Hints:
The complex is a heterodimer of chains A (157) and B (566).
Chain A: E1 2-10, H1 15-26, E2 30-37, E3 43-51, H2 54-66, E4 70-76, E5 81-91, H3 97-106, E6 110-114, E7 118-125, H4 127-137, E8 142-147, E9 151-153
Antiparallel strand pairs in A: 1-3, 1-4, 2-3, 5-7, 5-8, 5-9, 6-7
Chain B: E1 11-13, H1 14-24, E2 29-32, H2 39-45, E3 52-54, H3 59-73, E4 77-81, H4 85-88, H5 91-99, E5 104-110, H6 126-130, E6 136-139, H7 146-158, E7 164-170, H8 171-175, E8 177-179, H9 199-211, E9 215-219, H10 221-226, H11 229-239, E10 243-245, E11 260-263, H12 270-278, E12 281-285, H13 291-294, E13 305-310, E14 324-327, H14 330-340, H15 347-359, H16 372-383, E15 388-391, H17 395-403, E16 412-413, H18 424-434, E17 440-445, H19 455-461, E18 467-472, H20 477-486, H21 502-508, E19 512-516, H22 522-531, E20 536-541
Parallel strand pairs in B: 2-3, 2-4, 4-5, 5-7, 6-7, 9-10, 9-12, 10-11, 12-13, 13-14, 15-16, 15-17, 17-18, 18-20, 19-20
Antiparallel strand pairs in B: 1-8
Helix pairs in contact in B: 1-2, 1-7, 3-5, 3-18, 9-14, 11-14, 12-15, 16-17, 16-22
Amino acid sequence: MKHTISILVENHFGVLARVAGLFSARGFNIESLAVGETEDDTISRMTIIVSGDENILEQVMKQLNKLIDVIKVNEISASSVKRDLLLVKVSSNKNNRKDLMQLVDIFRAKIIDISSGSMVIEITGDEDKILAFLELLTPFGIKEVARTGIIALSRGH
Amino acid sequence: MAKCPNKDGKLITGAEIITESLIKENVDVIFGYPGGQVIPIFDTLYDYDCFNFILPRHEQAVVHAADGYARVTGRAGVGIVTSGPGATNTVTGLATAYMDSIPMVLITGQVPTHLIGNDAFQESDVTGITRPISKHNFLVKDIKDLARTIKEAFHIAESGRPGPVVIDIPSDIQKASFEFNYPEKAEIRSYSPSYEGNIKQIKKAAELINKSKKAVLYVGGGVIISGAYKELIALAEKANIPVTMTLMGLGSMPSDHQLSMGMLGMHGTYYANHAVQKSDLLISVGARFDDRVTGKLSEFASNAKIIHIDIDPTSIAKNVKVDVPVVGDAKNILTKLISEVAETKHEEWVSTIDNWKKTHPLEYKQDDNLRPQYVLEILAEITEGKAIITTDVGQHQMWAAQYSNIKYPRSFLTSGGLGTMGFGFPAGLGAKLAVPEKDVFIIAGDGGVQMNIQELSTAVDKNIPVKIVIINNGFLGMVRQWQELFYKKRYSETILTGNPDFVKLAEAYNAVGIRVTKKSEVRDAFKQAMEIDNTVVMDFVVEPEENVFPFVPAGKALHEIIRGLA
Lengths: 157, 566
């Protein structure tokens, strides 16, 4: 079972190492991790995806809370807004360029660089959308992929 | 003490900010060891008479001594060491203090800020190294942050679940100048331990207690840290609940109290372990269900509902499923709990346990041989539980826990969580400095005592008259015991040949050495040692292959306890 944890931390040096160190020391596995400043530049938000049962989730959240630099820990529910950003460089030539552009259209992705042998496409979305897109690109020849990892906010207030 | 300057509002150096801040924190004893990157601090200390500065002969002993001081006083012990090897030598001591929730502030020198990350001489990544073994750590990169950081370090170390805090201070920060203003309060928005305890949870706990017929109080170091001894005894007496203590909890209730069952766990008493297994309610206070306590987890107190009171939420439901968790300070929670529980008697349950106490007491072979248990029994008798006992780790530690008849909190100092050899002696020095009026007995094996034996210099030089009781069996006894019982007596590297003559060793350091080889000499030897106003090394040459019993082998359930004498 995957859980999305959103953590507000002091925007200091060394805080990421504390959080990452906690996961390795306690044997918890991080599936993805994204960090960035929030609207308050003294606070950063970390979005971490962990897998494990409810007990593991409970321990992870308590242990995170115990870190002095951690201000707040939340589990983000399944219904919240989650986005991942992917850059993918895919082989292309004049024969398949049209097909690729169609796919990009359907997925509401964006072509941000194009050359004679390849193009770089940007797509945002939840994990399912990104995986589906990658699967459809595979036959064209994926050269490189970079992902931000999931970031998330809860809906409403 | 004399000459204690006050430099509030003055422009002073970082080194002076450090010493001034320590004065503000009412620090009286500092343990430290100089080195290249803390020379400015030591130069400042040269002008200050308001600290009793102690120079242990190894940085590991600096930290253990500060730890011993903290265990006795409940206040943060303070250490100052240099960068690189000075700091890395403190790692074992920090980990020891962290595992046992001991408040401490350790100041480490660091290479100047412009050299950090350069692999400079005596540079190490101290915040990186100490991160998993400290409650928190700081690297001070700006002199403006120095005073506030020290304030926060003491606050974090001493509040909530206490622990060691490291402040890494580059030498250029020590030399820089800034106006000194020590904050009144530490304000850390991301840190606010909860002390009170949720009243609804407390009421639920009281309901369970009132319904139970065979409850057991299982208490740990948290009771001692929070100072909840009176409340513990009041609760136990009002609801008539027998009490068992973890190694760290010893002293929370006098061991001769009628409701005390002594220690539980791997080398706990038969009656404590059986009571836990047969209980219908286990009330854990300030303990953490450590594997040495629970034995086989799936069969631990399997018929009992569990109430878990702890200030650290991560301790709750980490190892066992808990029915009623209560997060907060033990003293506050027990106070409220006492008023919620009904006054009652559990005659059948208490008499069952009393009966076990009679039929299955702690015991060892009574003959003419000098057995370690006898040594410790006599020590307990002579000191009447009024002395402070520190231990190393191993067989002697367990015998000390079993036979010391510990009556008062903060009087039994032992490395419970990390199990650190070499802890007892320096911790004993810290303890003696904290309460000079008390006798301090350091119980050690012939193995562990050699891990910080250099502290004989410190003890004699500073006239810190402690008594070292070496339980000398010529073995690394606890490992030897496991080898005997589980590895076909293959005594791989546990035979200590080449031990020094401990009496001569003591004399070489200008301490006093006493050797005891006969049972009949034990009592007089202790009396003699207590009359000597110097450090005394007592070499008790004991039965070499004595084992610690009772014994719950690793991975077995508590009721599968081996008594040993049968």
